[in-house]
Structures are given as structure tokens and as C-alpha cells.
Amino acid sequence: MLLIISYFCSMKTHSNSVGELRRRYAAMLGKIYDTNESNTIVLMLLEHFFGFNRITLALNPDLCLDEDGFERLDHAVSELMTNRPIQYVIGKTEFCSMEFEVNENVLIPRPETEELVSMILSTDSGKQPTDTLNILDIGTGSGCIAVSLAKSLRNVDVTAIDISEQALEVAGRNAVSNGVSVDFIHADILSSPHFTKKFDIIVSNPPYVCESEKRNMRANVLDFEPSTALFVSDDDPLVFYRHIINFAKGNLHPRGAVWFEINENLGEETAELCRSNGFGNSVVIKDLFGKDRFVRAAL
């Protein structure tokens, strides 16, 4: 990336020096984020737009931006001050050591979803090398789960569905940019889509946040991330899990497994839903913070 830099600060004002801009913008963002987070966000902007990393900034404290560079940075910070997430501002995020495009049509992948991918890889990916492992990702969003599994496994056939055509466009670009093949299909799991093959692994991170939990969420999530991918009615919070587990009855290989990311407050209820539908080997698994976050269901 070309660096938009002026080295003539000594001849002009230092107001556009990177050091001064870091302090100024971190202080502004400190009204929304804590100190460490606001400093990290400013560093992310400087690296994204200009290629400056921490070492470059430490060794060159008097670097200055030209007017065009300053305006780009100032515009990005203005967007952040409206609570727009940094990932949407720069248009990308990292997941499982890969870069993923994100925008307001898809959720921003979370670290706990990386845990889900890791558990699937360590638990249910060990078939014979001559076999093809068939995986279905339901509600793929950015494609982070589907693409990560396709990238990590050999002899794998990954299918991913989503109700949002805009999300599938993002997911498709993420598959291409990360060099994997995923069959993306526009489908609604609530309408019981039909497949001619059975799957070894069905995975889903469906909407699971109850409407009543909105009051505990930050504005950068509520105002910008797609609500249809986040929220469910308090009257039927397990609606997606019920449809997925019913779908799995006829579409999962007998020795296959279903993996869910779940609402931490509904762990046992989700596992019991699976058991009552014939998946007797269903367990709740905690995330790294000790919260009920996943369910693995098997016959």
C-alpha cells in the first residue's frame, strides 16, 4: 500500500503528525471505548489506511500525514464516533488467522465462534482420508465458519445456507479470497430446505439473543449489525434450534454430529431440546470464559 506521508512537518504545523493524531483521536474515542480499546482502534486505522505498524510509529514519532491522508483518517474516526464498529469502517476482520470481508449485511465474527471451529476440527473431522467429509453451515453470514472449515480440512465438501442474499455475496467473496470452495445456497432453515445428500457435520450459529436482552447490548451492535441475524422472540427463543435439530433427523449421517453456538442462559434447555428429539448424546460445552456457549448433539 502506498503511504500518504509528508516529511515536511518542521516547515509547517505539527497538528497532522501521527503522534498528535493518535493522542487526539484516542481521546475522542475514549468517550465510547475504554483507553486500551480506543488506542488499539486508532492503531488499526493507521495500519489499515497507511501501513503504519507499532514499530514504524515508535521509530518515527514525527511522521505526518498529508491533507488527503488526514481527511481519510478524520472521516473514519467520525464514523466510529457514531458507534459504527471498526470492522465495518475498515471493511474487514480476522478470524481463524484469515482475513474476512464484513459489512452491515453480516455479523462481525466473534472469538467464541473461533472456539466452535476449533472444537469441530479437534472432535469430528477425523474420517478416513479416502472419505469425503460433508459439512453444512446453517446461517453462514460472512461465511467465517464454512470457509475456515474448508480451509482447514482435506477431502471436504462444505455447503452453507443463509436467508440473506446480501450475506451470501459477502460469504462468496470470502471463500474466493481465502482460496476455498464452498457451495453457498440461498435458503431458509425455517422452511425445511431439501438436500439429496446427508451430512457428517451440521453446524450453526443462529440468532439466539432474546429481544429482552437488547438493553444490555452496546450501541455499536444494536445500531449496525443485522438484527435478523441476532435476535429472537422471548416467546420462542429456541425456534432456530428446533428447526435445525428436526432438519438434522433426516439429513445427518447416523454417526454425525450437530454443533451449535448458543445463548449462555439457555444451555441446558438447548441440550434437552436435542435429547427430546432423539439426539441422546447431547452436551453443553463452556467457552474459555466459563460460560455455557456450545452444544454438541449426536444420536
Short description:
It contains eleven helices and 13 strands. The chain is of the alpha/beta class and 299 residues long. The strands form four sheets. A seven-stranded mixed beta sheet has the order 7-6-5-8-11-13-12, with helices on both faces. A two-stranded antiparallel sheet has the order 1-2.
Tell me what the structure shows:
The protein is of the alpha/beta class. Helices cover 38% and strands 21% of the residues. It is built from eleven helices and 13 strands. The chain has helices at residues 18-29, 35-50, 54-59, 67-80, 86-90, 111-123, 144-152, 165-177, 219-222, 239-251, 267-276; strands at 5-6, 64-65, 92-95, 98-101, 133-138, 156-162, 183-186, 199-204, 209-210, 231-232, 252-261, 281-286, 292-298. The strands form four sheets. It has a seven-stranded mixed β-sheet with strand order 7-6-5-8-11-13-12, sandwiched between helices. Helix 1 (18-29) packs across helix 2 (35-50) and helix 6 runs parallel beside helix 7 (144-152). The longest helix has 16 residues, at 35-50. It starts with a strand and ends with a strand.
First and last CA, distance? 52 Å
Query: What is the H/E order?
Result: EHHHEHHEEHEHEHEEEHEHEHEE
The number of helical segments is 11
Portion in helices:
25-40%
DSSP, total strands: 13
Radius of gyration, in Å, reads 22 Å
| Approximate shape | elongated
Helix/strand structural class: alpha/beta
Strand content: 15-25%
Question: Low-confidence stretches at least 5 residues in length (pLDDT < 50)?
Answer: 1-14
Task: Return the average pLDDT rounded to an integer.
Answer: 93
Q: Biggest sheet, open or closed, and with what strands and sense?
A: 7 strands, mixed
**Strand order, sheet with most strands:** 7-6-5-8-11-13-12
